[in-house]
């Protein structure tokens, strides 16, 4: 977009939350990997647990993952996975089997939210 010559525009600049002294300290801590307090009382460690599920090809199974945010799965050719809010304080991982095999999904972001590592086995559908 071009502005006509000779016209002036005023722009108001206000302090950004990212430039306030407290947030600069937080940013520095995050960039240096310094431990932060967490809900479980550990230094920088969010709650972690493992779970397993078995699902048949074409079927859907689910697992309560608490308030874990974020989802990463190893082999999306075997499953279709999605994370949905179940309530304001709980999310649920839904897994649909696509083909027989094993894989795993991690719900949560290490150091930020609880992490649930789910080992998934997909079995062939009965005929």
Distance between the termini: 62 Å
- Helix tally? 1
Which sheet architecture does the biggest sheet show?
4 strands, mixed
**Average of pLDDT:** 77
Strand content: 35-45%
CATH architecture of the largest domain: Sandwich
Question: What is the radius of gyration?
Answer: 22 Å
What would you call the quaternary organization?
A: single chain
Strand order of the largest sheet: 1-7-6-3
Instruction: Please identify which CATH superfamily of the largest domain we are dealing with.
Output: Immunoglobulins
| CATH fold title of the largest domain | Immunoglobulin-like
Number of discrete domains:
2
What ranges have pLDDT less than 50 throughout 5 or more consecutive residues?
A: 8-29, 34-42
Please tally the β strands and state the result. Answer: 7
Sheet/helix structural class: mainly beta
CATH class of the largest domain: Mainly Beta
What is the percent of helical residues?
under 10%
- Sequence of secondary-structure elements: HEEEEEEE
Tell me the overall shape: elongated
What does this protein structure show overall?
This protein has 127 residues and is mainly beta. The chain has one helix at residues 21-32, and strands at residues 48-56, 60-64, 71-73, 79-87, 90-97, 101-107, 115-123. It folds into two domains: 12-43, no CATH class; 46-123, Sandwich (Immunoglobulin-like). Helix content is 9%, strand content 39%. The chain is elongated and about 40 Å long.
Short description:
By secondary structure, this protein is mainly β. The chain has one helix spanning 21-32; strands at 48-56, 60-64, 71-73, 79-87, 90-97, 101-107, 115-123.
């Amino acid at each position: 977009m071009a502005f006509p010559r000779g016209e002036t525009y005023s722009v108001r600049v206000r302090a950004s939350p990212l430039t306030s002294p407290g947030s600069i300290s937080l940013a520095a801590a995050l960039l240096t990997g310094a431990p932060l307090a967490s809900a479980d009382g550990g230094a920088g460690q969010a709650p972690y647990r493992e779970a397993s599920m078995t699902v048949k090809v074409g079927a859907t199974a689910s697992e309560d993952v608490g308030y874990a945010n974020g989802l990463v799965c190893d082999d999306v050719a075997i499953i279709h996975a999605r994370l949905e809010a179940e309530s304001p304080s709980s999310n649920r991982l839904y897994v649909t089997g696509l083909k027989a095999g094993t894989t795993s999904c991690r719900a949560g972001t290490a150091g930020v939210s609880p992490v649930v590592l789910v080992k998934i086995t997909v079995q062939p559908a009965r005929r």
